[in-house]
Structure formats: C-alpha cells, structure tokens
Amino acid sequence: MAAAESYPDDLKYHEEHDWARIEGDEAVLGITWFAADALGELVHYEAPAQGTTVTKDSSYGEVESVKAVSDLIAPLSGEVIEVNQKVVDAPETINEDPYGEGWLVRIRLADASEVDSLLDLAAYKLVLADQ
Amino acid sequence: MAQTLQRTPLHDRHVALGARMVPFAGWEMPVQYEGVIQEHRAVRTDAGAFDVSHMGEIEVEGPQAHAFLQSVLSNDLDRIAPGEAQYTLLTNERGGMVDDLIAYRLGEFRYLLVVNASNKDADFRWLKEREVRGSEVTDVSADHGLIAVQGPRAIARLGLEPATPFTFSEEKIDGLEVMVNRTGYTGEDGCELLCMTDDAVALWDAVLERGAVPIGLGARDTLRLEVCYPLHGNDIGPDTDAISAGLGWVCALGKEFTGVEVLRRVKEEGPKRKLVAFVMDEAAIPRHGMPIEGGGEVTSGSHSPMLDIGIGMGYVPTAQAAPDTKLTIDVRGKPRAGHVVKKPIYKREG
Prior knowledge:
Number of domains of chain B: 3
Number of helices of chain A: 4
CATH architecture of chain A: Beta Barrel
Number of domains of chain A: 1
Strand order of the largest sheet of chain B: 10-11-12-9-3-13
CATH superfamily of the largest domain in chain B: Probable tRNA modification gtpase trme, domain 1
Largest interface: A-B, 13 and 17 residues
Oligomer: heterodimer
Number of strands of chain A: 9
C-alpha cells in the first residue's frame, strides 16, 4: 500500500527530490514521496556497494518502476557505510514508507558544511509547487 | 513543436477515474489508474477493461476486396469465413512489416482491419495507393470506440456465452449494439468490443458496472510482453522480417503477397537472427535498445508482475536462440545475466 503524501519537518531536502536525515557525522538518504509517486511502484533498487564514495549532486544508484528508471542523486558527499538490504529485496518498501523503512543508504559525511546548502521543508515545498 | 494530442471518447472518464494521462502515438492515453502491477494482476486473475479506441479501423469492401487483401496481407484469408478473424501482417517489398493487424471478415466482400494507432495513417496510405478497381478502402476509425475486456472472468462478467477465439458476433450490452470480437492482447480469455463512437461512454460504464477494473497502457504492455505478443515499433517493424520475428505461422508462403519472395528466401536459408524471449537470472530490468553480448539487442523489456523478475524479448544471432542459452545484457554499462526461454514467458495455469 503506497504511503499518503507527506514531507517530514526534520529532514533536509535536495531539489532532485532526495532527502537526508543528519545524524551527527552520518546521514541517511532516501527519495521523497513525490519522487516515489511519480515513478510508480518500484521494482528494482540498484544500490551502491558498501565502502564506495558518493558525491553531492551526482548519481549513486538507480531505482526502477515497471515503466521508468531514475538516477538517485546524492544530496551530500561521503562514504557508504550501510545499504538498506530490505529495499534491495523489496523495492516497494520505498512507496510504502519513503522516510522510514524505505531509506536507501547511510553515509559518513565527507564535509559537514555541505548540509548548509540543502533545502529545509519550506524551501522544498516551493520546489514542489513548481512541478 | 507542440503537437495537439487526440482524445478518445472516454477521455473524461479516465480523468475522472484519476488516471495518469500520457502521450502515446499522437493520443492522450491513460498509462495507469491505481498502479501497473495491481492492474496487471487484476487482468490475470479477474477482468480488466482497456480503452483502445486510439486503434485504427480500416474497411475494405467490394467484389475485389478479398483478392486485393490476399495480395497485401501475409496470412491466408481463404482460411476464414464471415464471422471469423485472423492475425496477419501488412508486408512491404523487403519482407518487412508495415504493420501487424487483425482482419475481421464481415461478409463475403467486406473486411474490417483493426490496426495499430501509430501506423493507421501509413497503413491507410499504403492500402489506398495499391487499391484496385472493385475494392474500396475507407478509414472508419473516427466512427468507432473500442474497449478490450480481458481476464479469466471477463466473458462471465459481461454475461456473454463462451465462444471460439478469433470469431465475432453482433450482441447487445445494455441495449447498445456491439461487435464482440473474441480477440485480445493479454494472453487471457476475453473480448474486444467495437461500438459506435457515441455509444463508447455508455459501453465503458456498463463494462465497469459489471466489475471489470480499468487498465492503463502500462499494464497492457507488461501483459503482452509476458505472453510474447510482439509490439510493432519495438519488436517488429518495416526493417524486420516475419520469419526472424517468429511470425512465420501467419505467412502463407504458398500464395503471392508483397515481399513473399524475400520471406521464402529467409525461410529457406534460415534466419541469421531470431526474436527470442528471455528472463533475467539476476536482479536487473532489461529495456528496449540494450545490447545483448554477441551482437543481439533487446527490443522489449520490463519487470514481470507475475514472475517478479526482469523479462524481455530481443533479436540474437541464431546460434544463441535456443532455450536455456545464457545471455548477457548490457544494463547501462553493467553486464547482467539472463537466459533464453521458450515463448510464452508466462503461461496461465490449467
């Protein structure tokens, strides 16, 4: 069952419809409800390998629905320290719980100051209003 | 340049149902209502309704209609009587396919061709340029709505009697005059209902009232791919021949029709490549245009909602075409393993 539209207040957002939850010098990344809804039911998560480096504003993986493929854009740079295996095994988890069980990777931040460039909820809502 | 999209008579119904509308072959069509996977499974387990009013209808009538169509279509129309239909190909001089279509024999001297939306104008021009005295070719697409009702419970839900595939009859549904064609594009039992344009909305409402759920083009594509029905423009086209595409069974090579000598030669020499079905052995989704190692190419690919794996069709050299042959698909730069399977990829139980 797809989740109802929501955008939590405690996350940082990227204009490519990705989110980051900052936890000290680490961050958990995922895609927003808007991105998951636009793609439709997800059927594949092409995850980065643990230990690889992701770069802010660059692709670190892919998600696919029946009809479409979408790059995952890293909102922040860092090293992948954990991949959500649950989503690899059951990609629809992203549609069901995009900010909880449907997280994609956990990274160790390369440069904590990058966080300042991300959007807060109000700014992301302006991006959504433009879609 | 912005192009104005055509709308079917059911456009407002789709919007009211919350469909996601997309451009397709010059038409604004519903790609999904609730979700592709859910809709796909509804057709495999119960009954789904598809608006296929974008498809073209071309009538060919006259004392020479039969002889004329025999000379331009690959299959043998002598094998069907009035009330019967036939899957066939409109071929070009190179043995390629202008279109694939279903010919309905309405009478001794009258046929209705139901053709792909994207090829309708080309088909009509092709036929018009070749038409002979005594055969009148008319584009009657604007006069008709077409609704496919497919699934194991489709016929029962419509209150129709079971009938032989590829036959048709005039029936009334809620007082509406409908040509009920026992044809489809899903591999399931069902029918395609041809009605007058003005009756399309009432017929759609009647079909949904009987419990068929609306199905978008997304599921239409995954349904046909699971059962390996080719899609013109993807798997087959003007530059692919029927023998290599595995469509030799709809080519009556004993009669004369456009391009037949090319097809006879391919058949005799054996095709250099073949259109095969395959499934992935690892988590990856093949897509149209991806290279297959050894010189092949994916022509259709998606995720199979019934098998929950990546599936596809593609051309491979004949040496790689036997079932169980390992294939390597280039998925955006990453080699991914799959293997050839016998068509269809998905078979209904029982």
